[in-house]
Amino acid sequence: MTGSARPTGAAEVFEQAAASYDRTGVSFFGPFGAELVRRADIRPGERVLDVGCGRGAVLFPAAQATGPTGHVTGIDLAPAMVALTAEDVTRAGLTHVDVRVDDAQQPDFPPGSFDAVLAGLVVFLLPQPRQALRAYARLLRPSGRLVISTFGVQDPAFVAATDALAAHLPADQARPTRPAGPFDDEQAISATMDGAGLAVTSIVEHRVESRFDDVDHWMRWMWSHGGRALLRHLPQDRLPAATADAAEALAAARAPGGGLRLTTEIRITVAVPAGPPDA
């Protein structure tokens, strides 16, 4: 995709969310990105690719880890996301970081370009995640590693609230039942990586508690990321009732001192090249 092309599908969702993405005062992407980089064991001087970089939750910790003797490239399919993150990079004076429009499904770099490829909460959004992993494996140097994060167990209150919103979708927008996926559990992740020519060295769980002032704050947060994919299909006249039902579902997450608390679990997988990937 070129910078002049109009994003579609998931890219369009994140293009529309770019200005508020990770900017609603909720601790979520930042802690997850920092933990992914910590698990990646990035060393000074290394070359790193951050696929689906968003607003830099992984990019900036990676840049700190490589130091000025290394280099970090962030790619995203949403031009607005890239433009805003590039501005943040410039303001921070990070001359060893660049951000560009490119497709996380098939990054356009020569084989063996990177010591580490990082993908924070993005691979499962891609149309063909297994093919993407094969592409990442080709980009790694022989001693390189791929580090991805995927969702684990979700807070029951969050699941109930999103189900409450989805119940107000028009019939032609109803969410289909999700089949078993390549990242559903550790066994599935290991098998998926193996099929991409990668050997898993570790899978760890990491949890973050996110706090919200109230249901309106939660809804602003939902609009600011992939949750927009659901919300944008809700008719305007159904939003008040949908929000009220979500608030009822979130009652279980109310904190003693006020507000809401939701806990999200992710799995961080580290894998290394294991030989030629499957065809």
UniProtKB/TrEMBL annotation:
<dbReference type="InterPro" id="IPR029063">
    <property type="entry name" value="SAM-dependent_MTases_sf"/>
</dbReference>
<protein>
    <recommendedName>
        <fullName>Methyltransferase domain-containing protein</fullName>
    </recommendedName>
</protein>
<feature type="domain" description="Methyltransferase">
    <location>
        <begin position="48"/>
        <end position="144"/>
    </location>
</feature>
<dbReference type="Pfam" id="PF13649">
    <property type="entry name" value="Methyltransf_25"/>
</dbReference>
<dbReference type="InterPro" id="IPR050723">
    <property type="entry name" value="CFA/CMAS"/>
</dbReference>
<dbReference type="InterPro" id="IPR041698">
    <property type="entry name" value="Methyltransf_25"/>
</dbReference>
